[in-house]
Design brief:
Structural class: mainly alpha
Order of helices and strands: HHHHH
Number of helices: 5
Shape: globular
């Protein structure tokens, strides 16, 4: 089977996210709890982005969260 990046990342509707390591799941879950505590419930699309993100992206969002005034600032594509 040929490697297809969009499928690997789970971007196709109805696809489940790929299996992730415990550490990455923990990072994602912690950031989600912190974001919910600071900004309230997350929209489903943002919660999914968190679940699919790699460690470096989670770290970027965590750093942005410290100074952001809203969720849009945290998740803005720079």
């Amino acid at each position: 089977m040929r490697y297809i990046p969009s499928l690997r990342r789970g971007n196709t509707p109805g696809m489940q996210p790929p299996p992730r390591g415990d550490a990455l799941q923990s990072e994602s879950a912690l950031l989600e709890r912190l974001l919910v505590r600071r900004f309230g419930p997350l929209p489903e699309a943002l919660a999914l982005r968190l679940k699919l993100a790699e460690s470096m992206q989670l770290e970027t969002w965590a750093q942005r969260m410290l100074q952001a005034e809203c969720l849009e600032q945290v998740f803005a594509d720079a």
